[in-house]
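Checked the freezer inventory, then went back to the computational side. Two predictions to log before the end of the day. The first one is the construct we discussed on Monday; recording sequence and tokens without edits.
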Amino acid sequence: MKEREQGSWENGRYYTVALALFSLCILIPMMSETMLIAALPVIEHEFSVSGILGAWILPVVLLVGAAFAPFAGTLGDCFGRKKVLCIFLSFYVAGTFMGGFAWDIWSLLFFRFLQGIGIAASPIAYALVSEQFPLHKIPMGIGFLAASYGAGSLTGVLFGAYIIDFFGWRATYYILSPVVAVHLIAVLWLIRPSYETNASGIDWKGTLCLFVSLLSLMISITLLYDSSGAFLWALPAMAICIISGLLFFYIERRADFPAIDLSMLKKPVVIVISATAILVSLITYLLIQTMPFIIQSPTGLMLDARFVGLVMMPGAVADMTASPLAGRWMRRRSAKVPVYLGAFMMLAGCMLYFVLPQSVISLAIIWVLFSGGMGIVATCYMIIMINSVPKERTAGATGLLHSSINIGGMAGPMVAGVFLAAYNASFTIGGEKWVLPTEEAFDLSFGFGIFLTLLILLLVYLICRYSEGKPT
């Protein structure tokens, strides 16, 4: 009896430590990303870029994450999830360490490219929870992982805005470098080894085609809004995007061990969840890209970087709180109530932008509603996705889902960049000339957000319909 109690206590302690380390795989990247949000106008000004090119700063990480997330999941299934997680986290450590020493926009984008490889490992954290935790602990574990997005955002906006305001944006990288290094060491030392299923047949070609397709898409969008005549190259870039995308699907259908198991797409619920993830992430990053300009621009509130944190911090708390509550609800009841509630909260947040007078308080209310709703919807579709595939394919399924999330996150800032570049004006601030967006750009972002949330509501209806009667 004492040995059983001792083993139970040791397992319980391991689950606590492991969940904390898995959560940090999400929390630290989110903290890093949200720390940079307040610095976007400053970085664009320092490197003399603006509009659509400046919109690459956030999505380049997600571009790599979108391409490599399913690949990371497949590698984890083949070689062991802990081993692959540590390799990908090593790239994140390297990118974080060098990011603070970027000398121009291109070096910064390259270092963020390395960070993107690390972010691609997040599906493995979900798969490890499914692999190593007892069945009854999995929904709550997934809820805590989902809440890590909000916790990371909270920490990032809370401290990032002040760090940037007092010490500059490079200080965020200097501070995070030892943190990510210690986290990697802890994962290597404390996480139990995971099983290997197959050590051959890795789909390198499919991953490369997906990466080229997404990169070409971003380049074509950028070139379309280039005023120097380079827009003529947008059509060849779009052609490369389409061709490499078609090659990707062709390779995946023929590969023995594909990066993305397209057979999962035969299930309608998987297709609908993937589409929902793309739209939720797209609108989230669209607004994340827009909010700092609303707060700091002369056509907005004309406040300093610290207020970006003050406005967005309550929303991060709402996300961090709502996600585990949604996981707890789904463990006992169905997903229908929370997923609808979350979608309507997102819609209400976007609509209130056109109703409330613009102020710090009104923007904070808008962000609380939107972020809380986003956290609920994300938790619900993650749990439904994992329950819709066999346990041995959870890494592949979460890889597919995180690719969808990253594709949406990649597209969101690009769409915002188009809006911000289409409507801007020159201002003289502190004796320097700044090119900043006007109020019309902000209206476009939130108006497009309303349209996307209406589509999300339709997809939520389909998710509930296709998953009805399935245990959560």
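The second is the one RB wanted added to the comparison set:
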Amino acid sequence: MRPDTEAGARLPEGEARSIVKLRQTIGMLSRRLALVGLVLSVGLVAMAAFVILELRTKQLLDAKRELMTLNTVLAEETARAMQSVDLVVDTIVASLSKDGPPTGEGLASLAGDRGFHEGLKAKIAGIPQLDAVSVVGADGRLVTFSRFLPIPAIDLSDRDYFAHLRDTEVTGSYVTEPVQNRGTGTWTIYLARRLVGPDGRFVGLVLGAIDLRYFDSFYRSLKLGGRSAISLWRQDGTLLTREPAIAGVGRQFRIKAFTPDLVASQGGYYEVSDAMDGVHRFVATRAVTGYPMVVNVSRARDDILHDWRNQAILGAGATVLCIAAILGILWTLARQARANIARAQAVLAREDAVRAREAAEAQLRQSQKMEAVGQLAGGIAHDFNNLLNVVIANLDWLERHLAHEPALLARVKDALGGAERAAETTHLLLSFARNEPLSVAPTDVNDLILRFAKLLRSTLGGQIRMELELSPDVPNLTLDANQLENALLNLAVNARDAMPAGGSLTIATRAVATATQTVQVTIAVSDTGPGMSDEVIARAFDPFFTTKPVGKGTGLGLNQVLRFAQQAGGSASIESRPGEGTTVQLVFPVSAPESSRMAA
């Protein structure tokens, strides 16, 4: 019976080995099939994505080329239109100055002069954008006008452009802001020339009135279609006209076309996600040569990419079909092994469940261990706090009974301060153990700094001189005094490390009234160290960022200072320049009662 028993014992072991081997074989086959499918799928997706992105890039580049070409043509056409008006105005100025600089009396003599009036009408004939020309006297009244004779009593002295040209020495042509006709509501800009008499004084203006409807009609005739737009601007951001029309003619807008870089380069191309009409657009911008004007041509991004989206959908659909076909073939190849794969997966799942249970049990044990550590820390802090209470009580007794011994009394006070700070530390530890909030109370900032200065001086060492500039009108702040001490200590240590050869550290406080009738307290910590660059300042408050050598700093000090200031409802900032030292400024709001006291 013994041999049979041995044979029966070996059979399950052989089956187990077969199951393991089968599982390994099936697993390897499945992995290879999956790898082949993954490689083919990723290759197809990558190729499709590359083609789609290339098509998108080409579509955007084509649109950019078209917009910039059209923009250049429109800017040149606008310049020619303005030059035609400028030539007429220049001719009128020349005729007024043919016998010398014009005078007020000479301009006044033009009133009622039919020959001069007819000459003005002849000059504007055939120039559709030029609605009228006129001569204005020094008092702002029309002297002669191409549109009417006799001249109507029109006073332009209340116009902004008249006051500007009267009071400012402007040479050459001046393009005014758009002016809306008070009767018809149409918009006009004036190309103006300043007239100066023999004595250099202002005697009047020659105005060429440019009807902005000319540009509206011209832009509309281009029939760009879709959500394309053409707009004409002054270089100060004032909208002159736009097709299609939009509210805002005559108003200044802050748009990217008038950023310093684009203005300096006289043109460019940019993308804006929220244009004036709320549409995501690509914009070509070009300055009008010789005039303070800018032409913008834009198209909606959705319109530009419309054809590309259709191509992308077709390409993505074809890719999906190819991937589906590949996966279908691979699925067919793996179909015969599914039963064995499922069996192997069941075994693995059972093993995974066992491992998961063991991991959960280990995590529970670790959690219980950490809970015990927290309770132990809390118990130690509690016992240590009881011991400190005894120490503090005896030091209080000594302080009361050693008033006649100044030297001993000073030492007792130092010991009492240290014991109280130790008590605050145990309070923090207890707060950690019990998950309690930190102690927040009204705090006399100046008194805290004066008391804490001794510790700071010992921390700084003999090579660094510390100065206090404490404003006497600083009110109390409601915050955690211990956290403020920690912040000051962090800043002092940073200053000390920045001045290995010595220097000075200044702590200053002051109260500042804000525009909203509230009061803020500023605590500034300044050193005479090497300072910081703008790049370092930008990252100084980032956690784990430090410029100290490896092992000399954690990069958490300034981050802790910032977090404390923000938790107290305030802020922290750095002012520094290389070679000029560093100032870290903490700003805290003052509670309403304290603000009232300051105001009183």
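For RB: The radius of gyration is 42 Å. The longest strand covers residues 503-513. Let me know if you want it refolded.
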